[in-house]
Amino acid sequence: MHYDRCFGCGELDGGLHMRSTMGEHALVHSRFTVTEAHQGAPGLAHGGLLACAFDEAIGSTVGNVLRRPSVTGKLETDFVRPVPVGSTLFITAKVDGVAGRKLYASAEGRLDTEDGPVAVRARALFVEVALEHFTTHGAPDALTKLKRAEQINP
Ligand SMILES: CCCCCCCC/C=C\CCCCCCCC(=O)SCCNC(=O)CCNC(=O)[C@H](O)C(C)(C)COP(=O)(O)OP(=O)(O)OC[C@H]1O[C@@H](n2cnc3c(N)ncnc32)[C@H](O)[C@@H]1OP(=O)(O)O
After folding, report:
1. What is the pLDDT of residues 87-123, one digit of tens each?
2. Among 9, 102, 135, 144, which residue carries the largest CB count within 10 Å?
């Protein structure tokens, strides 16, 4: 978790409550369980929420592997199988490359087990920013709030 009010990984009611762990070979593993609150069509996950889960999983990967503050510049998703309510996506993400401030990463999400069928793939460009990005455009005390989460999850 990088911030307790984050929609993706924080403790908010209605948030995605995702957690990520670093695995071998700099792969980062995240899980997202689809609930009734995440539906688009009856009984199926909403694609935009799945994209959100991948934004979180890839952002956490870029942040934790590279340790450079960055924001999503571009996020592309392929939805290759329906994701039913009650299923869990096992997401594995990795950094693909760095070109100056441009940080490229990708992920795939498998249904219900780590070796289940791939349901979603995503690629993202994160852009490195100065820490002032968060204090100027967000909350003036953004760094204190982020630092507090770092202390809880060093
Ligand atoms: C010490 C700290 C360590 C940290 C450790 C932390 C651990 C855990 C961490 C973290 C977990 C995080 C989990 C969060 C996950 C969710 C993340 C989000 O949802 S972020 C919110 C949504 N995104 C925005 O709000 C961005 C809004 N956009 C902007 O602010 C700007 O447009 C920005 C910064 C992206 C770029 O603006 P410019 O003015 O700074 O830079 P320019 O020159 O425009 O772009 C730089 C390069 O990137 C390319 N670029 C930028 N956007 C692009 C795009 N959409 N497509 C293609 N290329 C793009 C440009 O063409 C340029 O490339 P060329 O250098 O010329 O080669």
Report:
1. 999 999 999 999 999 999 999 999 999 999 999 999 9
2. 9
Q: How confident is the model at residue 151 (pLDDT cuts 50, 70, 90)?
A: low
- Identify residue 36 by its one-letter amino acid code: E
- Of these residues, 4, 13, 55, 112, which one is catalytic? 55
3-state SS assignment for residue 97: strand
Q: What architecture is the 20-146 domain classified under in CATH? A: Roll (3.10)
Model ipTM value: 0.95
Structure tokens at 81: 């199988």
Q: Which residue's C-alpha comes closest to atom 47 of ligand 1?
A: 102
Residues 6 or more apart whose Cβ sits within 8 Å of residue 33: 86, 87, 88, 89
Look up 13 and say whether it is catalytic: no
Closest CA to 68 of 56, 76, 59, 77: 59
